[in-house]
TrEMBL record:
The keyword ATP-binding is annotated on this UniProt entry: no
Keyword field: DNA damage, DNA repair
Name by which UniProt lists this protein: Fanconi anemia core complex-associated protein 24 isoform X4
InterPro entries reported for this sequence: DisA/LigA_HHH, FAAP24, PND, RuvA_2-like
DNA repair in keyword set: yes
Record-level Gene Ontology MF annotations: chromatin binding
PANTHER family linked: FANCONI ANEMIA CORE COMPLEX-ASSOCIATED PROTEIN 24 (PTHR31786:SF2)
Domain DisA/LigA helix-hairpin-helix motif: 94-142
Length: 143
């Protein structure tokens, strides 16, 4: 089976994209697919109404690849691959923070330094009031 790179001549910096056709049958599975794809795999999930819409979307993705890379939402941000799992596990050590909250926090605050300097007001929209207070207290109690 040919990969998307082989088919479209795309560079390897495209992140994973999952295209899902939403039908009456697939609708019941969509929340689970969404959680797995986005939170567990860190990939982009793009729901489409039909196969025609999917093909138009793929054409658009290929065309976007040739435009300005900094504005392309489907390109990966360059990060150190070895530190990501370590960083995720480190953030999960904060009381009240599991895998889902850790992933959300790292999307908003990509480093421990940024996370530790975040105010409760900055943390609240990401993890809620109670968790924001716990996280803020974790970083400020030893200062």
């Amino acid at each position: 089976m040919a990969t998307e790179r082989d088919l479209f001549g795309l560079e390897t910096n495209l992140q994973g994209i999952v295209v899902v056709e939403k039908t009456q049958m697939s609708q019941q599975y969509f929340p689970a697919i969404q959680k797995f794809t986005v939170l567990d795999l860190g990939m982009v999930l793009l729901p489409v109404a039909n196969q025609t819409e999917a093909s138009c979307l793929i054409i658009q993705l290929v065309q976007e690849q040739t435009k300005e890379p900094s504005k392309n939402p489907f390109l990966r941000k360059r990060r150190a691959a070895l530190s990501e799992p370590f960083l995720l596990r480190t953030v999960q050590q904060i009381p009240g923070v599991g895998k889902v909250k850790a992933l959300l926090l790292l999307q908003k605050f990509p480093s421990i330094q940024q996370l530790s300097n975040a105010s409760i007001q900055e943390l609240e929209p990401v993890v809620g009031q109670a968790a924001a207070q716990q996280i803020h207290a974790f970083f400020t109690q030893s200062r």
